[in-house]
Write a structure and sequence with these properties.
Elements (H helix, E strand, L loop, with lengths): L3 H26 L4 E3 L5 E4 L1 H7 L3 H4 L16 H11 L20
Antiparallel strand pairs: 1-2
Length: 107
């Protein structure tokens, strides 16, 4: 009929969106992920991040990242690159060090 082409296009796009969402969920379930605001406060995280570090969700939400980062890390070049990427709202992926909920950091 008149709208059959548009209906088919919409159906194809819906199927593609479903596949992309499934792919995103698979990727997210296999990694630790956090989202920060421009002040480096935690705005979102996946369950793997919280579970791996031993925090409850309410212990992480809106918390400054500096509270879960060892002090020496802030002097490393990788952290400066990290801060620059966050300031530009660019995604970044690397290996980082965090304090577990059951750790006490001394120095």
């Amino acid at each position: 009929m008149f709208n059959s082409r548009l209906k088919k296009e919409l159906q194809d796009q819906s199927a593609e969106l479903c596949r992309l969402r499934q792919l995103y969920e698979q990727m997210s379930s296999n990694r630790l992920s956090i989202t920060l605001d421009h002040e480096l406060n935690i705005t979102a995280f996946n369950q793997n991040f919280a579970r791996t570090l031993g925090y409850a969700a309410e212990q992480l939400q809106s918390r400054p990242m500096s509270e879960i980062t060892p002090a020496y890390v802030k002097t490393l070049p990788c952290f400066q690159q990290f801060r620059a990427a966050v300031a530009k709202f660019e995604p970044i992926s690397d290996d980082y060090r965090y304090l577990r909920a059951d750790e006490v950091w001394r120095g």
